[in-house]
Amino acid sequence: MADPALEQLEKAFLGRNIPELKDLSSEFSQRAFLEQDRDLVELSVLAYSLAKFCDKPYIVNNPAWKGFTEKIEAGLKTAIELSSQKPRAPLRSKIRELVASVEELSNSFGRFVLNTLDKARIKAGANIYAKGASLGSAADLSGAPKNEIADYVGATRIPEKYSNGALEKRLKRAREALTG
Amino acid sequence: MTTVICDASSVISLSETCNINALQYLKDNAGTAFIIPPAVQKELIESPLHIKHYWFSALRMRRLINAGTLRTVSPPNLRKETRRLDSLANNVFKVGRRPLKILHQGELECLALASSVNAAALLVDEKTTRLLVENPNLLLESIQGEQKNKVYVNQKHLRAFRKNAYYPVIRSTEVIAVAAEQGFYRDYGVDEAEAARAAMHALRHAGCSITHRELDEYEQLF
């Protein structure tokens, strides 16, 4: 049976549904953590990148956009067919091909040092961290650098959930540990 | 002399916020030894060394080790102990039949090293390792809050994990607080107290798992 999430991704991109693409990105990264599946991280990155592209007039109005969308739509159709088959290698290869197309388009615009794909990967990593993984696990699974995920997390409210114990007690422990 | 095991998350936070010298300061003034396991050295140096964006950061970390501020330690039983903790920690929580892999090699080696050298504390900024050691119920609550399906706890694994991996956990903010108490920001003159407060905020934004309420409490202290 074809992966319903891939079908949702195809539908969301065909409809240029930015909120749905972002939701799917989050869902893929959540599944990636649960299933320890890097292919799902790639799908998360793909969904997020497509959402970002759809949101930028200078991209969607660019002559390269038509060829790109045709490539993605055809690629997603193939990926859906492959998702109902075994082994997984052809599906994996197709997903990576789609991500490579995103990278190519992102680099061709060249406005930023960090391209869209890098940002998507950091977002996936931060999402995986928020779901319960350690920073190391999130970095390993997402492929994003640890410090980039940490910086991203630092700008969110994610750390607010993890207060444990009185600060004075923690500081007392620190004094004992650091100064003997 | 006390020994503190450093996770990569804390070293990165301190380095990114230009507070890494606090480690040498505490080493000089309080005799604290800061040690790291091989996996953390790999995260700080070997891996980023080949990425142009992080090349300089990796060289700065290597300089810290060459200067003796951080020391890499790899006792004979480290690999075995790391594997044991891996099999416990990464099987504590399950969703359906799938165990949640929550800790990575670097974090596991830090925990394994802590027991080998009888460390005074574990320095870690990221929240999962800290909570698994300090308050697994809070970690479970936060994981459950993010999952649609029920999260199960293997109490036997959890008990076995905590039996050998229970250490005082401190964060980079506590390192800065203690260093500040010892005069680390004295060079700032009239701005000394403000520097300590500002450093705390910088560490939060670099990813240290500290809440705004705790930051407010630190502001009152300095």
Description:
The complex is a heterodimer of chains A (180) and B (222). Chain A has one domain (4-179). The termini of chain A are far apart. The relative contact order of chain A is 0.12. With 180 residues, chain A is an all-alpha fold. Chain A is built from 10 helices and no strands. Chain B has helices spanning 8-16, 21-30, 38-46, 55-66, 78-89, 105-117, 127-134, 136-146, 155-164, 172-181, 192-205, 212-221; strands spanning 3-6, 33-36, 70-72, 93-95, 98-99, 121-123, 151-153, 169-170. Chain B has 12 helices and 8 strands. Chain B has 222 residues and is an alpha/beta fold. The chains are: A mainly alpha (180), B alpha/beta (222). The interface between A and B is large, with 44 and 69 residues.
Helix content of chain A: over 70%
User: Could you describe the largest sheet of chain B, including whether it forms a barrel?
Assistant: 5 strands, parallel
Briefly note the structural class of the backbone of chain B. Answer: alpha/beta
Return the string of H and E elements of chain A. HHHHHHHHHH
Radius of gyration of chain A: 19 Å
Q: What's the mean pLDDT score of chain B?
A: 93
Distance between the termini of chain B: 27 Å
Q: Tell me the fraction of residues in β-strands of chain A, as a range.
A: under 5%
Enumerate the strands of the largest sheet of chain B in spatial order, edge to edge or round the barrel. Answer: 3-2-1-6-8
Structural class of chain A: mainly alpha
Mean pLDDT of chain A: 91
Number of domains of chain A: 1
Number of helices of chain A: 10
Strand segment tally of chain A: 0
Q: How many β-strand runs of chain B?
A: 8
